[in-house]
Amino acid sequence: MSTPLLEVTDLKKHFPLRGGFFGGTTGYVYAVDGISFHIEKGETLSLVGESGCGKSTVGKAILRLFGITDGQVVLDGQRIDDLPAGTLRPLRRRVQVVFQDPFSSLNPRMRVRDILAEPIRNFGLARDAADLEDRVARLMDKVLLPRDAVGRWPHEFSGGQRQRIGIARALAAEPELIICDEAVSALDVSVKAQIVNLLQDLQQELGLAMLFISHDLAIVEHMTHRVAVMYLGKIVEVAPKRSLFAAPKHPYTEALLSAVPVPMPGAARERIILKGDVPSPINPPKGCRFHTRCPYAFDRCRTEEPKLAPPRTAMAAGHLAACHLHDRPDAENPLALAKGEAVLPV
Questions:
Q1: Which of 47, 272, 315, 330 could form a disulfide with 243 if both were Cys (CB 3.0 to 4.6 A apart)?
Q2: Are the C-beta atoms of 331 and 258 separated by less than 8 Å?
Q3: How many separate domains does the chain show?
């Protein structure tokens, strides 16, 4: 079996709270509290969940925009979470990011030519000035923007065009992994589709791997290979796309999917309305973190934290869910044998 391009193990990021007369630590925000996943070469893994669940924190931790509290991040067999700051340059080239806001992520004082040329110069990828200009021109071709637009400023472009420039800048370093942090959430619906199609085409052409961070499940279903669902700093379910969308194995995932608009007019879907608010990440609930809002919670959920494990009724290999319901008999499990899927052999 090949080595995953990215492997994250028990990743934690706790932000200290400062207060009191001497400004000491009064507590922690448990933004990410022990998650594990991997991404294969050329694969897209989508990380989904409500705002504030820790999705973007995971992306920033992988990018080494801040240190982590605990855990390991391994890129192509090399651990990168403990690398000294002075040795991060090779990492920066191999892992790039496309941010949510395509305007604030671009330097308003630089023309597009300079924005795209900067990473090429930083990593010494061009042989000479002519090669540099050729690389910039080819980047514009890849993101379907006219070559003569390189002389314009970021404010002269629309939101979708600016995001294309952001994608071109990420591609300029010739990365192996791109982290898309809500890369289409600030765009109009029609433009979202164009950017998603562009990302898919680029992935097939260049063999890129992607961590696609989003809360838009309709977009996720269109472009991903696997999905990891986060809730309050934890991954509660991870599965191949088709298996997760056809038969979710965690009550939170079930509720999220019930809110996705049905594409066929007149089609029926039972909407699941979760009660209460998301608990504070400063003081997360004991046991299963979702039990305060779960319609199926029972006593064990309030005291024992569930582990990610394969449900007996999963449709596909690699489908994991952190839910005590799957330890109960099928007759007592509302998520068992849903939609008529077959039971996998234990």
A1: 315
A2: no
A3: 1
